[in-house]
């Protein structure tokens, strides 16, 4: 009994019988693994088909044979019936079906082989778009020929910004809402990932006007500034007075205030001699 698996890897994609009639995607270059529904008895004959072409066939009593298109890339397990195809390409997209012991299994395996999305480029047209224009066109540009299905998103940088799902091309109007948006960006997303463009300046952007200060706030700020000046002047005067006091020399046993020439207290020069 086969359990249900739905496993996605960049290199390998396993698609089980429960996924039949559902479009499943895998990346270009990956390996495809298709697992049939449960069956009874050993495999005596098996045929895997891609659209209307044979991938591999085993007739009873003969060896496996593969078509030219898949000969070097495909293999069929004659015990489990599992089909593996390596190095999948865009042209391998389509419907796969299997017949085991002459019984065609219901449904099929719808496979889409795609690439990852490219890094998009956000374009604004016309090239003359400016704040004088009434409207302009935003385009999320990039080669998505083999990347589908692709979903497009646009980013409008206003406050925290927000991504919005849109078409590949959108029209922006020169109105109050758009004028509040600083920048634009776009995103491409498919089943294998997403990529964003760089930020592009909004030609309609109008910077917000500065908020005026109410008169009462101005008065309060003026008073506080005045108090700061007064406090600074008062502090300076106090500091000057105290500094003058602290700069005066203190009394010393060897200092005579009246002896201005700095001579010793005995009135004698240091090199003079006293009479015997």
Features:
276 residues; alpha+beta; Immunoglobulin-like; 7-stranded mixed sheet; 20 strands; rod-shaped; disordered N terminus; glycoprotein
Descriptive overview:
The chain has 276 residues and is α+β, with helices and mostly antiparallel strands. Among the domains are: 6-114, Immunoglobulins (Immunoglobulin-like, Sandwich); 121-201, Sandwich (Immunoglobulin-like), CATH 2.60.40.10. Helices cover 13% and strands 33% of the residues. The chain has two helices and 20 strands. The protein has helices at 176-179, 215-247; strands at 6-8, 12-15, 24-27, 31-34, 46-50, 53-58, 65-66, 74-76, 83-85, 94-100, 103-104, 109-114, 121-125, 135-141, 151-156, 162-166, 169-173, 183-190, 193-196, 200-201. The strands form four sheets. Strands 3, 5, 6, 7, 10, 11 and 12 form a seven-stranded mixed β-sheet that branches. Strands 1-2-4-9-8 form a five-stranded mixed β-sheet, with no helix packed on it. Strands 15, 16, 18, 19 and 20 form a five-stranded antiparallel β-sheet that branches. A hairpin with a 5-residue loop joins strand 15 (151-156) and strand 16. The chain is rod-shaped. Mean pLDDT is 80; it is low at 1-10 and 248-276. InterPro entries: CD2/SLAM_rcpt, Ig-like_dom_sf, Ig-like_fold. It is found in: Membrane.
């Amino acid at each position: 009994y086969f359990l249900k698996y739905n496993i996605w890897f960049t290199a390998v994609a396993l698609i089980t019988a429960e996924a039949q009639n559902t479009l499943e995607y895998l990346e270009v270059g990956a390996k495809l693994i298709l697992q049939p529904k449960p069956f009874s008895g050993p495999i005596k004959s098996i045929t895997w088909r891609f659209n209307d072409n044979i991938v591999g066939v085993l007739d009873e009593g003969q060896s496996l044979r593969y078509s030219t298109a898949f000969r070097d890339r495909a293999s069929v397990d004659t015990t489990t019936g599992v089909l593996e195809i390596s190095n999948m390409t865009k042209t391998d997209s389509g419907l796969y079906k299997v017949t085991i012991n002459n019984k065609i299994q219901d449904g099929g395996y719808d496979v889409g082989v795609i690439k990852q999305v490219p890094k998009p480029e956000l374009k604004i047209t016309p090239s003359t778009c400016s704040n004088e224009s009434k409207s302009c066109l935003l385009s999320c540009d990039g080669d998505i020929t083999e990347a589908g299905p692709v979903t497009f998103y646009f980013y409008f940088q206003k406050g925290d910004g927000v991504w919005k799902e849109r078409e590949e091309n959108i029209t922006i109007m020169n109105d109050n809402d758009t004028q509040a948006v600083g920048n634009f960006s776009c995103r491409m997303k498919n089943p294998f990932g997403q990529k964003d463009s760089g930020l592009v300046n909004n030609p309609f952007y109008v910077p917000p006007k500065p908020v005026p200060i109410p008169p009462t706030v101005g008065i309060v700020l003026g008073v506080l500034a005045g108090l700061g000046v007064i406090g600074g002047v008062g502090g300076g005067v106090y500091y000057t007075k105290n500094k003058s006091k602290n700069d005066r020399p203190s009394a010393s046993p060897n200092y005579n205030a009246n002896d201005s020439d700095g001579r010793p207290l005995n009135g004698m020069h240091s090199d003079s001699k006293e009479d015997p």
